[in-house]
Amino acid sequence: MDVAALVISIAAIFISIMVAFIQDEREHKLNRTNLEAIYFNEIYKEYLTKRLPNARKYIHIDPNGVLKDTDKIRDELNNIRQDSLYYLYNDEDFYNKLKLKSQSLEDYLIRSSVNPLLGEEQTEFYSKLQNELKELYKTINNKFLGIK
Fold first, then answer.
1. pLDDT tens-digit profile of 35-75?
2. How crowded is residue 61: how many other Cβ atoms within 10 Å of its Cβ?
């Protein structure tokens, strides 16, 4: 009887220690997640809700087919890359994806401004611009949601 009580006591102590370690690890993970959410919010909230949409609304094609006022959104794309440098050290894969998407969009704007956009090219430009912005937003949102 004493041996059974001793075995149960040792098992209970072992289980208590394991539960404490597991709980501690969960708390650390939760703290890291909360801190990451704070950083993420600080960096991207303004870009996603105000800065990029406001810069986008200035882009237009004049009557001669010349793409105008892309400088504001290109500046914001550059700013978002600069403000994302934290992730170069914390999550290099995310940083590289974001950098690639923003540079791709910036390059597309520059290429599109070289020659006049006529007829259907204008529709194609606006459609591709919309898709490129969606991909940028998706990249950022996926990071926030923990989707790789």
1. 777 888 889 999 999 999 999 999 999 999 999 999 999 99
2. 19
pLDDT at residue number 137: 96
Are 67 and 109 spatial neighbours (Cβ–Cβ below 8 Å)? Answer: yes
Give the span between the Cα atoms of 76 and 11, in whole angstroms. Answer: 59
pTM of the model as a whole: 0.79
What phi and psi values does residue 68 have, to the nearest 5 degrees?
-125, 155
Q: How do residues 99-136 score in pLDDT, each as one tens digit?
A: 999 999 999 999 999 999 999 999 999 999 999 999 99
SS (H, E, C) 45-80: HHHHHHHHHHHHCCCEECCCCCEECCHHHHHHHHHH
Write out the two tokens for 53: 């949409």
Distance CA 94, CA 145 (A): 12
